[in-house]
Write a structure and sequence with these properties.
mainly alpha; 73% helix; 0% strand; globular
């Protein structure tokens, strides 16, 4: 493996770990702070079916762990895109900057782009399943 390929693999690893940690953190927030039923009620208040909250929590926790481990990286990244796009949509009315009340939409939009890049480039180094 040449040094350029090694650096690219390490860059892919860094991006994969970053998205994995963010997904896991948001999933655990929904699980332990907002609670699954509270998250379901919030989703319903936005007009989403309440059961999507449970799927979102499962994807964020399970998908975050899978990305951190490098397990089915491309698939998990692809599956996360609709969830992240939904988060972007929820924050659209709050404006651009995430420090706005209710959070802006640039952070979840960036996560959509990161997930798309991971889906294209793959897991990088130190992945359980490349």
């Amino acid at each position: 493996m040449n040094s350029v390929t090694r650096y690219q693999d390490h860059a892919a690893l860094t991006l994969r770990l970053s998205l994995g940690v963010i997904l896991l953190a948001h999933g655990l927030l929904k699980l332990f702070v907002f609670t699954p039923s509270g998250t379901a009620a919030y989703f319903a208040s936005l007009g989403f079916p309440a059961f999507l909250a449970y799927l979102t929590i499962a994807l964020e926790v399970g998908g975050g762990i899978a990305l951190i481990l490098g397990f089915y990286t491309r698939l998990i990244a692809l599956i996360s895109i609709p969830v992240l796009a939904g988060a972007t949509w929820v924050h659209l009315s709050n404006g651009w900057v995430f420090s706005n009340q209710g959070g802006g939409w640039e952070f979840p939009a960036l996560l959509v782009i990161i997930a798309a890049i991971i889906a294209i480039q793959g897991a990088g180094s130190y992945a359980l399943k490349r």
